Amino acid sequence: ISYIKKQKKRLKSKKKENLTIVLQYGIVPPKTQSITFVPLPVTKGLTLSHTNIKLPDIRRKKHIYDFAIEVDGKTIPMVTMNPISTIVYKEFQDELPGIKAKTITRFITKQLTSAAASAASQRSNNDSAGALAILSVVSSISQAMEEADTRQWSILPHEVKLVRAHLNQGKHDLNLIYMQDGNEVMRKKIGNISIPKKGSKVINLKI
Predict the structure, then answer these.
(1) Backbone angles phi, psi at 141, to 5 degrees
(2) 68/161 Cα distance (integer angstroms)
(3) Which of 54, 82, 119, 166 could make an SS bond with 148 (beta carbons 3.0 to 4.6 A apart)?
(4) Residue range 151-170, pLDDT digits in tens
């Protein structure tokens, strides 16, 4: 019981944070295209034995900086609140096998349909030029429809960092510290802020 009373007293005496700084750092890695070699079934009227399929791709973004806030000469490390790039990369890797299977299946189906259309045209009027034209059009449509889907929320930040602190009422000088391996490599002046007597202050940064 005495321990619980001590803890309650300690929590009551603890000063409440009145400054919150949220940092949006960088942007998520871009979604690009990669080329995958795909063998195709060889059937009468289908001259292609393989093709290249365009698939979406996302590269894992390397970690470069940690961050801290310097307040009146005192350094307070920031914590990662939302590692958005890591989440985006993991979700994409989980979905990629399904995307690949569906894309390849669609492409092969379209190529077989193209071959069947060409063969039917040749049988009906023996017009080889017309058959080649049909095959070319259908094949071009298939290729155009199989462009990789690279749509994404490109404005999302790479990471969201957070720090909370209690400051005395009045003006304070703030700096953003760039860290690598625990050492300062660069700093950026945030400026002077004013902490009110009551209430709290929230600062949003984006770099």
Answers:
(1) -60, -45
(2) 9
(3) 54
(4) 777 788 999 999 999 999 99
